[in-house]
Amino acid sequence: MAGEEHRVASLAHPQPAELHLDGAWLPAGVLGWRHDGAGRCRVRVRVDVAGAPRVVWVPLELLRLPGPEVPERPPVHRAAAPVPRPRPGADVGAGRRAPGRRPETWREDHPYDGLMGRAESEVQELRLQVELLKLQRWAGATGQRVAVVLEGREAAGTDGLVRTVTEHLDPRRTRVVAPGSPSAPVRPSLGALPAAGELVLFDRSWYGRPAVETGTGDLRAVAAAEQLLVAGGLRLVKLWFSVTRGEQRTRLALRRDGYRLTTADLAVLDRWDAHTAAEETVLAATPPWTVVRANDEPRARLEAVRHVLSALDYDGRRDDVVGTPDPLLVRAASAPVPVT
């Protein structure tokens, strides 16, 4: 049990921060985290004291990351030409694309000129992960039950969001429920609901593929069950990750060596219109949903985390760090798509 009580997560690279010591904020570097149970988290920090470097464990409350720098908003992308979808039977599955530059299918319906850089996304991600630690501590201290439902098309990016959210959280108070059989029943997974003080992420497993990909099942019963759960105290956040047709094709191809698409991949692509109709059915029948435009994966992950944090009024939330989800990428399912 001692190992469980002091499980340590180390960062690959020290992150700049400030430590409150002897009444002053001193420059420091964050090296990792440790969970001490009951939602408490301590941070491993390197700091210079009287000219000598020291590594200490400190409570989260004594640490602050530098205030977020608000970059100038990139110009809105208005002239991105859609990438044509190859004709069925062309060299999509049977042929190969020579490895090299990634197709720019992310430009389809994307409001920005470029993809978010790795350095920028990592800094913002760490700041939001500190807020996730506060959220987990609040849930543990107050007995909140938090469920985050992630749905979307194949290759939309929900797995990446799960990794971002859970990377530094206490695994004893965080669970991920992933899909089992594709024919799973279309209803909330009651047996997997969070207990008091627990956060559960449902990664394409709350409704099951029959509902998401075919629009079948008793969706009205699902909506009614959700309303009862929320009335009973469940904190429920539902995110739908949306990618364009060309970007889905690119991501499926990149999963394979030499960009070769399999028969199963081609079947997913050929059902695009049917899945679109099913998506509209599910979103309309089981509100409220928040749609995330996910062609730019790092940017979509950050905005999705930002939405989760802003939707839950936890103790110690820094609104200057959490900010407001980008309305060009995040919208209520009932709201019109922003014109770019």
How would you describe this protein?
It contains ten helices and eleven strands. It has 340 residues and is α/β, with parallel strands linked by helices. It has two domains: 2-63; 105-332, 3-Layer(aba) Sandwich (Rossmann fold). The chain has a six-stranded mixed β-sheet, with helices on both faces. A five-stranded antiparallel β-sheet has the order 4-3-2-1-5. Strand 2 (24-37) and strand 3 (40-49) form a beta hairpin.
Helix content: 25-40%
User: What is the CATH architecture term of the largest domain?
Assistant: 3-Layer(aba) Sandwich
Structural class: alpha/beta
CATH topology of the largest domain: Rossmann fold
Tell me, what is the CATH class of the largest domain?
Alpha Beta
Protein name: Polyphosphate kinase 2, PPK2 family
Keywords: Kinase, Transferase
Biased composition (Basic and acidic residues): 101-112
GO molecular function: kinase activity
Which terms would index this structure?
single chain; 340 residues; alpha/beta; Rossmann fold; 2 domains; six-stranded mixed β-sheet; 10 helices; 24% strand; globular; kinase activity
Please write out the topology.
Elements: H1 2-5, E1 8-21, E2 24-37, E3 40-49, E4 52-59, E5 63-64, H2 118-142, E6 145-152, H3 158-166, E7 174-177, E8 198-203, H4 209-214, H5 219-231, E9 234-242, H6 245-254, H7 263-270, H8 272-285, E10 290-293, H9 297-311, H10 319-322, E11 330-332
Parallel strand pairs: 6-8, 6-9, 7-8, 9-10
Antiparallel strand pairs: 1-2, 1-5, 2-3, 3-4, 10-11
Helix pairs in contact: 2-9, 3-9
Keywords: Kinase, Transferase
Pfam family, one: PPK2
Region (Disordered): 73-113
